[in-house]
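Quick one:
INPUT:
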């Protein structure tokens, strides 16, 4: 309802909830299917809009930062960029439990040419190295997992989003490219790469510039998600009011940064 607004009938909301779980199931099916797919099939299933923004950055010798929501099938695009586009691709991912599941996903992503960095203390150095080596860097940025992010307005409510994309762009000059990869009804993926979000120093304090740019990214992510809200796989609480509501019914969920 945050995405669609108050005027949308309840039955439509319920229908989209069902479609969201169907989309999430498709994500998992594709995840297990992609390693067995021939490169030609990955190429034929991909419609890439805005890939010129990526080429422009790499040709200039700097790795672009693709800022993505947890939506659709971003891994298909990552494999296409690596196997068909010939790019070096680095993705920062959330560690999964149990560790065997994380190791499985890391292995199949690396098998198809992606470099995987686990979110954690060593991630910063790894992503700086990737940008300097002109890798395409994929950052999922619609959820503040560590609880150390920037407060923004996101779909009409205050929450926090990761500071990493804006901070990296300010420090390296890497372009920030809002990106989303949508499931097509007939199979395959349509990936949309938008023009760069403006990145420049304006304030005396770096934190103020990071806040401004992160808010701009939040607005860009809103637009991408609204194109296909049923494909947004946000299956966890993401706003303070979500946690408050769960606590009110006796089902508390750890807040970001809490064990």
């Amino acid at each position: 309802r945050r995405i669609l607004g108050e005027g949308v009938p309840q039955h439509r909301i319920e229908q989209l909830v069902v479609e969201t779980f169907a989309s999430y199931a498709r994500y998992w099916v594709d995840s297990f299917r992609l390693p067995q797919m021939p490169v030609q099939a990955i190429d034929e299933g991909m419609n890439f809009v805005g890939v010129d923004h990526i080429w422009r950055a790499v040709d200039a010798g700097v790795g672009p930062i693709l800022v993505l929501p947890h939506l659709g099938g971003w891994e298909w695009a990552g494999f296409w960029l690596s196997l068909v586009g010939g790019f070096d691709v680095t993705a920062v991912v959330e560690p999964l439990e149990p560790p065997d599941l994380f190791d499985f996903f890391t292995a199949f992503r690396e098998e198809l040419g992606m470099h995987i960095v686990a979110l954690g203390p060593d991630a910063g150095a790894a992503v700086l190295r990737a940008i300097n080596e002109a890798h395409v860097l994929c950052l999922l940025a619609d959820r503040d997992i560590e609880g150390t992010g920037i407060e923004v307005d996101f779909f009409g409510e205050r929450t926090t989003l990761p500071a990493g994309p804006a901070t990296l762009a300010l420090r390296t000059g890497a372009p920030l490219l809002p990106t989303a990869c949508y499931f097509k009804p007939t199979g395959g993926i349509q990936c949309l790469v938008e023009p760069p979000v403006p990145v420049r120093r304006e304030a005396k304090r770096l934190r103020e510039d990071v806040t401004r740019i992160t808010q701009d990214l939040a607005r860009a992510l809103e637009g991408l998600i609204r194109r296909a809200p049923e494909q947004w796989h946000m299956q966890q609480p993401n706003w303070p009011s979500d946690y408050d509501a769960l606590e009110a019914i006796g089902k508390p969920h750890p807040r970001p940064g809490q064990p």
